[in-house]
Amino acid sequence: MNVTGLRGGSVPALAGVLLLSALIVQATGHSPDSALEAVFRGALADGPALTSTLLATAPLLLVAVGSCLAARAGVFTIGQEGQVLIGCFTGAWFALRLAIDGPLLLVVTLLGAAAGGALWAGLSALMHRWRGVNIVVSTLLMVFVAQQVVAFSVGQAWFLQQSKGDKAVVAPQSNQLPLPARLPSFGEYPSLVVNLGLVLALALTVVSAVVLARTRWGFRLTLTGLSPAAARHSGVRVTRVTSLALVVSGAFSGLAGALMLASPIGTYRLQPGMSAGVGWDGLLVALVARGNPWTCVPVALGFGALRAGGSFLSATGVPFFLVDVIKALVVLALVVRQP
Amino acid sequence: MNDIEIVLSSGVRLAAPLAFAALGEYVAERAGCLNISVEAMMLGAAFASVAAASATGSATLGLAAGVAAGALIALVHGTLSHRARVNPFVVGLALNTLVLGLTSYLIASSDFASHQVTQVSVPVLRDLPVLGPPLAVERWPVYLLLGLVPLTWWLVSRSRWGLELRSVGENPEAADVTGIHVNRRRRQAMLWCGVMAGLGGAHLAVGEVGSFSQNMTAGRGYIVIAAVIFGAWRLGRTLLGCALFGLADALRLALPALGVTLNSQLLAAAPYLLALVAMLVFVASSRQPRALGQPFERGSS
């Protein structure tokens, strides 16, 4: 089996994407050279740039690996964005409302976020089991409900809205997380900082890959995905396996939300729209990686670098949205090439 | 106009783009394509219509360009998902990302003149109480619905093409055995969806608003999918769903001005919640096309 999941054909496909993007930049009267340089400077050039790439990578990787687990069981879910948001929401609730001090608060925040994401995905699993509701559609619809849940919670003084100081006007956002609920960073190298979130994401990637390849549950999952009928005949409880896969992928997405909330990218507070497309991007990462957790690592790094580098684009006059174009083209190029 | 008329007329305006696109998504879903790229079709069409209107100075030509853009996206979708056999959800998702990125990118580096199709005031209708102003004074494309709704109904429910289309959505294997080219029918349904969603997006841009702004469809494509589900894959109920969602949106915008405090997040989530509830109620009675969302490949089952 091909370990990376990507094939030789990927290189010309990616070159084509790069060329096409350069053409778009050129055609709109900007310089492709300086755009490329800006992305590089923002993503890879030095310690701070690498730090922001790694920060952006961690939640993407988690969402992607969760999606891989679901995809392996044959469950196609597109609700990750909503699960990430609900993860942010429940994580923030635990971090701000529980009277716990010390490292335990961080643990509770992370677990709370994972539970929130799992619950949100679990609702879709339940609707599928009870009434045969299409999982693709229900997970999609729940994204928009999740957005309103977060918008509501930070708009209510009694719920999660920032508490009033001297000013009468309060922004629709929560208070900042207390210090113990924030993810610590390691290795104060010359400005290269590795956040605990990345370590967590990598560890869970390894665990997931090993579970898929080496354990009985991983085998059941793969068998169910390959042929539900064969799985049923060999005594696998198919619905239970697929529901659990969906819930676990929701937990991964929820945890990804906590990684954003409790790190500098989320400025340590709950805000509407704070998921910033990480759920969609993570799903795209999993698609490009063709459901292989190992492959998710380099792909997530690539997407993370694009996210980090994209913020430097605007300085060259090239709109930030070029990054989204490149991402979509990469997905199409890599997915279409494969038979 | 009094308050009710204001809410009703903004409801009609918000529902019209949804109704156009829903006519397309309804056909696509009856053929078994769960097309999640309606959003891309509407947004791409909205952009293309404003760009073309600005270039030619004619809002009507803009509308046509929007339809062409919707059709183009449908062709890409159909080719990738039914010829290259890529998972249709993957294609839809990638297209949504691509079109959102591309239109946001292009609008940030261009400047379009504003154009809008003309408003028509229907003589007798406008004198009706309450319903008069909302229905009688509209941008003219709205009245296209009067022809397109029966046409869609006839195509799907009464024509031979529609019969084959429905068989493709219910049981592609059987349709294949009787000599129907399953994936060709699905590409045709998708094309119809592209044209209609394109019309919806273009109507939103050069009809209602007159200009393009970044992500101006803002999830309307997803609401359209919700409307078809809410309508339990029937045309009449699907359009009713669009009207309901348009009205909910109009209420959300109007309530603060009317001095009523109803939670705006709840109203914004209402279409999606309604669709979820409708699915819980209706899906079990299996009105959903049986092969919905399942790619067909000859000899695969």
TrEMBL record, chain A:
Give the UniProt keywords, A-Z: Cell membrane, Membrane, Sugar transport, Transmembrane, Transmembrane helix, Transport
Describe its membrane topology: Multi-pass membrane protein
Taxonomic superkingdom: Bacteria
- Record CDD domains: TM_PBP1_transp_TpRbsC_like
User: Which compartments does it reside in?
Assistant: Cell membrane
Pfam families assigned to the protein according to its UniProt record, in alphabetical order: BPD_transp_2
- In its UniProt entry, the species of origin is given as Kineosporia succinea
* Chain ranges passing through the membrane: 53-71, 83-100, 106-126, 133-159, 192-213, 241-262, 318-336
Task: Reply yes or no: does the keyword Membrane apply.
Answer: yes
Q: What's the chief localization of this chain?
A: membrane
Task: From the Swiss-Prot or TrEMBL record, give the protein name.
Answer: Simple sugar transport system permease protein
UniProtKB/TrEMBL annotation, chain B:
Q: What is its main location?
A: membrane
Q: Which InterPro entries match?
A: ABC_transp_permease
Which compartments does it reside in? Answer: Cell membrane
**Residues annotated as transmembrane:** 59-77, 89-108, 140-156, 189-206, 218-235, 242-260, 266-284
Keywords recorded for this protein, A-Z: Cell membrane, Membrane, Sugar transport, Transmembrane, Transmembrane helix, Transport
One Pfam family from the record: BPD_transp_2
Membrane topology, record value = Multi-pass membrane protein
Q: Which domain of life is it from?
A: Bacteria
Under PANTHER family, the record lists: ABC TRANSPORTER PERMEASE PROTEIN (PTHR43370:SF2), SUGAR ABC TRANSPORTER INTEGRAL MEMBRANE PROTEIN-RELATED (PTHR43370)
Q: Name it.
A: Simple sugar transport system permease protein
